[in-house]
Write a structure and sequence with these properties.
Blueprint lengths: L6 E2 H7 L5 H9 L3 E3 L2 E2 L5 E2 L5 E3 L1 H8 L3 E6 L56 E2 L8 E7 L2 H8 L7 E9 L7 H8 L3 E2 L2 E2 L4 E6 L2 E6 L6 H8 L2 E11 L2 E2 L8 E3 L8
Helix pairs in contact: 1-2
Amino acid sequence: MTSPEPVRLSKRMSELGLASRREADEWIGRGWVRVDGAVAILGLKVLAHQRIDIDRRARSQQARRITVILNKPIGYVSGQAEDGYQPAAVLVTPENQWRVAAASAAPGPAPGAKGRVAPMRRQDLSGLAPAGRLDIDSTGLLVLTQDGRIAKQLIGEASEVEKEYLVRVRYSGAGRLPAAELQRLNHGLRLEGKALRPAKVGWQNDDQLRFILREGKKRQIRRMCEAVGLQVLGLKRVRIGQVMLGDLPQGKWRQLGADEKFA
């Protein structure tokens, strides 16, 4: 929601999806941003109706920022190294690039043939940061990006982007998980004293659930399952928004396609 009061220019640019706040401050410092025709200065506050223009040099710099999709294996952490485990970013090397272009970003069967893509250079891959978590015991789709706009879209407080998971489980009780407990997974659980947002949870097959969430608390799915008597045996993220993991091999990565969008 846009405030009627003046806000910092960098905040306004972030609200409009023009740049991350850090990126906006960098551009303002370089004289690449104009407000109502005048070169902006750091700390300037603006109103919602004021026109913001971005220099083509800033656009060119932004276009060079890359985002990659990694199929994270078990045993790697999403962010900084911890407890002796390496961050997933160490897998994003030229040697691990999967050089098959995605035929379709949309969920469902991918139409058409896939083509080869050019290799990335090691220097192009610096500065990638994870846009979201995937715990050390989980596999699947992890996004790493140089683009603050994408990070905000995926992990910002107002994010509505869906994340889809396949979760192999075992029920600790007799027989099958009761329907009432499955309903609680969809809506009715609380973590850390707060109600979880409604989810979409249903059986994929006899021992596997499909979870679709619009939030990402720490180890959320494992804690949700524990609350209804389910033990998680395997967890794999297969989709974020409109971007699918597809047949990307485990431990490999590919660049997000120019026509692929998370939302």
